Amino acid sequence: MIAFDAASFDYGQGPVLQDLSMVLEPGGFYFLTGPSGSGKTTFLKLCYLELRITSGQQTFFGDDVSHLNRDEAARLRRRIGIVPQTSRFLDHLTVRDNVSLPLDVTGRRTPQHLQNVEDLISWVGLVHRADASPQELSGGEMQRAALARAVILSPEIVIADEPTGNVDQEMGGHLLALLVELNRMGRTVLVATHDLDLIRRAKAEVPARVLRLAHGRIVQAGADL
Amino acid sequence: MNRLSIFLASLAADPTADKIVPPTGVTARLTLFAAGAMAFMAVFAIAISLAAGHLAERWGDALKGVATIEIASGDTAEVERALSVLETTPGVLRPREVSEERQQALLAPWLGTDFPLEALALPRLIELREGPSFDPDGLMLRLSAEAPSARYLKPDEWQSRVASAAQRVSQLSVGLILLTGAVVAAMISLAATTALVAQAGVIETLRLIGAEDSFIARAFVRRFTLRTLGGAALGTLLAALVLLSLSRGDESLLSLLRPDWRGWLAILALPFLSGTIAFVSTRLAATRVLARLL
């Protein structure tokens, strides 16, 4: 699905990630761990093409993505559901409008899809907050709204960056349950986290694999905790 | 898709495009005001340009066949000597001095009725009609001895002076309209760039969920085009009302400002012209800023 081969990335001041060679298989559940500053967010951004590798090769669904322009990358991103670390919403829109925004962007605002919006808002438990402004949401509610928006286009892979970073354990469990459910529906899930308890709880539900980042490299891929 | 289709598609009802651009109070008001003010000025520039044309036409007709002797020194004795020469010159019909009242009346539109003409070193003028045997060279030869500061102004010289002055006013007005268009373009471009840069977070979010640059640009282009169109329509309407009120009546010089059907057509086109300028300016600004915001 997403593959890196001897890939590296740097911001111009020495490599941040180097010698990445790995494959995210369809239907897999992956955790990306590592200490703060190890490059987890950078790696995720490479996965959804917000950043581009500076050397090596990266393929997406079998195609080389190194030469995609901005619009081509944006179109490819529609096949990826992204839950960023810090919630990125359009604050002047309601939660419902934010969740349905990918439909507007892709020109798929049909009655059927709009019904999906309502179903998704219900699925993440935000029916009572659908008409609220994103600024009025708590950390957990924001993450759930971001998750609903991430899956509205039925992506093949969902990438979440520290989804439980700013929520309590109960909310973290709820978010994990949603991600597990998505994985059981056949979606590939990649979650960056340093919450080991979250990983343990997930592994009790699904055969999750753990990728560990340290010193700019994935030092342990596919190993159990 | 041709340019017209792109323009129309950008303005067509699109609730999505409307909603993704956050409301920006100050920029919105500034764009509305500037577009309105520019349209207001452009309406008057059009009216002045057309009025200059009408004035030249009117004066040209009045001056047809009328020649003028200008006595630059302004000396009364010289004027009298010149008149005597003219009265005895074959081919010269009805020579008469242009009275001070008439000069005052001619200059009133420019200087007002209360202006003390004696404060200006105006030449004295003698008007005459040219008969069939009129010989200007012979006349000047005779005048050179009696009235050395006399100068013969041919009928078409006056006409060409008036036409040239009117043409200059007209050109100035066209220049003013072009300048107004350029100011609108610069102002919209600046406002759009500021709005786009200020909304970098929104753009980042839209890209994250798969928005292409054309979608983002379309939203901003639509917002600024419609805003400019609205502002320019208001400015044009207001200017048209002021113009109608100023040009009421048939006697006043200001009645020349009343546009004919061509003038009204040009004035009505102003909001659409402003909208087109805004469309192009915002599109260029959006393309530039989106390329920068990688």
The value of Rg of chain B in angstroms is 29 Å
Share of residues in helices of chain A: 25-40%
State the shape of chain B.
rod-shaped
Order of strands in the sheet with the most strands of chain A?
6-7-8-3-9-10
**Rounded Rg of chain A:** 17 Å
Helix/strand/pairing class of chain B, anyone? alpha+beta
- Give the overall shape of chain A: globular
Q: Write down how many β-strands of chain B occur, each being a DSSP E stretch of 2 or more residues.
A: 4
Q: Name the largest protein-protein interface in this structure.
A: A-B, 25 and 21 residues
Strand/helix succession of chain B: HHHEHEHEHEHHHH
- What is the multimeric organization of the chains shown? heterodimer
Q: Give the N-to-C terminal Cα separation of chain A.
A: 24 Å
- Distinct helical segment count of chain A: 7
Strand content of chain B: 5-15%
Largest sheet of chain A: 6 strands, mixed
The tally of beta strands of chain A, per DSSP, is: 10
Bin the helical content of chain B.
Answer: over 70%
Task: Report the span from N to C terminus of chain B.
Answer: 26 Å
Strand order of the largest sheet of chain B: 2-3-1-4
Description:
The complex is a heterodimer of chains A (225) and B (294). With 225 residues, chain A is of the alpha/beta class. Chain A has helices spanning 40-47, 70-77, 95-106, 111-123, 139-151, 169-184, 196-203; strands spanning 2-10, 15-24, 29-33, 55-60, 63-64, 80-83, 157-161, 188-192, 209-214, 217-223. In chain A, helix 4 (111-123) packs antiparallel against helix 5 (139-151). The longest helix of chain A has 16 residues, at 169-184. With 294 residues, chain B is an alpha+beta fold. Chain B is rod-shaped. Chain B is built from 10 helices and 4 strands, in the order αααβαβαβαβαααα. In chain B, helix 3 crosses helix 9 (213-246) and helix 9 (213-246) runs antiparallel to helix 10 (261-292). Chain B has a 4-stranded antiparallel β-sheet with strand order 2-3-1-4. At the A-B interface, helix 2 and helix 3 of A face helix 2, helix 8 and helix 9 of B.
